[in-house]
Amino acid sequence: MKAIARPLAAALLACAAMSAPPCAAAAAPSVPHVFLVQNSGWMEPFYSDPGSPFKPLVAALAGSVVQPGQALVLASFNQSLPGAPSPRALLSFKAGEEPVGERVAQAIAGLDTARKPGGAALADTDLGEAVRAATGQVLQGRPGIVWLVTNNRNSPDNDQATATRNREFYALIHGGDAITKALAFPLRMPVQGRHYSANGLMVYAFAVGAQGAAALDALLASGRIARVITEPPARLKPLDRDTVRLAPRRVVDAPGVSFASAAGGVLRADVAPDARTPQARIEWNLENTMYPYTISSATLSARSTLAGESRPIALDAARVRALAPGQPSPLGSSMALPVAQIPDKWSLAALKSAGSAYVLPGRIELHLADQKLMLSQAFRQRMAALFPGDPLPDIFIPPARVQASTAVLPLEVRVHYGMGPLLALVAGLLALLALFAGGAWAWTRPRTAQVLVDEEARTLRGRPGTTQPVHDRHGEQVAQLKTTLFGHRLLDVREGVQVRLGRP
Questions:
Q1: Does residue 159 register a pLDDT over 70?
Q2: Partner of 93 at 20 to 30 A CA spacing, among 53, 257, 258, 259?
Q3: To the nearest whole number, what is the mean pLDDT of the chain?
């Protein structure tokens, strides 16, 4: 394996530009894809049957999931032996405008089943060896997605080492930290070869790192995988989070409060600004999202975190039993609402949100303790039909250490404020401005005063707040006239001179 892993890593590092982009004008902010295609002995019917859809499937899947700017490495694998290293690189490039599916189809067109060196015996398989080469040597611990296309058999001769390699493969997926998310797609693909026949094929998707898991989730959500593989994925890992989904059915005895599911899996609570009900009675559908596992039993508890406060949610049922994948189960609850944190409709926060919504972010956590999982009977029957005579792979047996899980439901409490308070405030401000404008006009408007000096009339004009002299016929000052907002006053009247306000 070491002899071939280095060329694979070099191909990826040189053309996919994981540390620097020498092969592309601009680096894409996305993870690379590594496709591992099995070509050992048990795969013979997939290669020799002229009607086999095996190779078109690989090309179509790569063409659908690999997007422009993403790196792709394609390799065949069986079991590494001296003189016959495995995996073997077939193609390495960064996707551009040229269709990815066509390049992959050309690369695997001449691929055939491998044989052991120095003889005619068909090659054995080591699934764990191939995955370790992809995660450790090719990706070198960096985020990515590894696609493993296999007939799910580790050795055509069923030798004693097969069970050991199966356990190693199990430990690699469930026990290792490199793989953060693992899915399996069992596909019906009946083929007849010269030596063997087969009914089914398995496609694994292994996400490496948190960014790889996010990229795989995005692919599932976008429907890019479903364009090629219509079967639902079987979850292998993780089995300790996002195991169930809560879907609100109705809210009881909480006027002004409603719940609905929004985009991105967010639960949205729409609350009227005058709602002051401290508790909301909510009825949910609890759904198992861990296909193909049935939750045979688990203890339930829940908490809500809103406006920085964490509070327990009272559940009607403390346990769940025999919850099959995709099967909804009714669950009632009583949940505290953050009425104390809802701003008053006259507050600044409410006025800022007038006509829209004031959002309080939060989350609901549902915890499953003493969790016991078992494979659904329908999945067992499907596996037996696709891979007749083969024991169920241990990889589908849930680890005994996975006895608890947590499902987190993002929550948005949205308080809808009308335009009434804002319009009233604006009207008040406008009235106040009008009052100020009127006062300013009144203050600055010149006022006319009639002053009699020794019975001779004088006409004076002045603005409020001003004081001006009053003169007699000889031009001497005999008084002062002070103008205010409310009238006029005479000041400093000289003794012996008759000065008064009014007309003659």
A1: no
A2: 53
A3: 81
| pTM listed for this prediction | 0.73
Q: Say what angle helices 54-65 and 100-108 make with each other, to 10 degrees.
A: 150
The answer to whether 422 and 408 have CB atoms below 8 angstroms apart is no
Nearest to 336 by CA among 358, 360, 300, 368: 360
Q: How far, rounded to the nearest angstrom, does the alpha carbon of residue 267 sit from its chain's CA centroid?
A: 13
Beta bridge partners of 374: 294
Residue 259 confidence (pLDDT): 74
C-alpha–C-alpha distance, residues 275 and 344, integer Å: 11
Pairing of strands 267-271, 405-416: parallel
Residue position matching structure tokens 């004031």: 358
> Do 231 and 237 contact (CB within 8 A), yes or no?
no
Q: In sequence order, what are the beta bridge partners of 250?
A: 283
Measured between its terminal Cα atoms, the distance across the chain in Å is 123
Contact 30, 67 (CB under 8 A): yes
Q: How far apart are CA 483 and CA 461, in angstroms?
A: 9
What are the helix and strand counts (H, E) for the chain? 10, 23
- With bands split at pLDDT 50, 70 and 90, how would you rate the model's confidence at 475? confident
Strands (E), 171-214: 179-192, 197-208
Question: Burial letters for 235-260: b for 16+ Cβ neighbours within 10 Å, e otherwise?
Answer: bbbbbbebbbbbebeebeebebbebe
Residue with tokens 């199990």: 170
Q: pLDDT tens for residues 237-289?
A: 998 888 888 888 877 766 667 777 776 667 777 776 665 665 778 888 899 98
Q: Who's near 213: CB < 8 A, 6+ residues apart?
A: 180, 181, 207
504 class by beta-carbon count within 10 Å (0-12 exposed, 13-18 middle, 19+ buried): exposed
Nearest to 220 by CA among 89, 32, 65, 24: 65
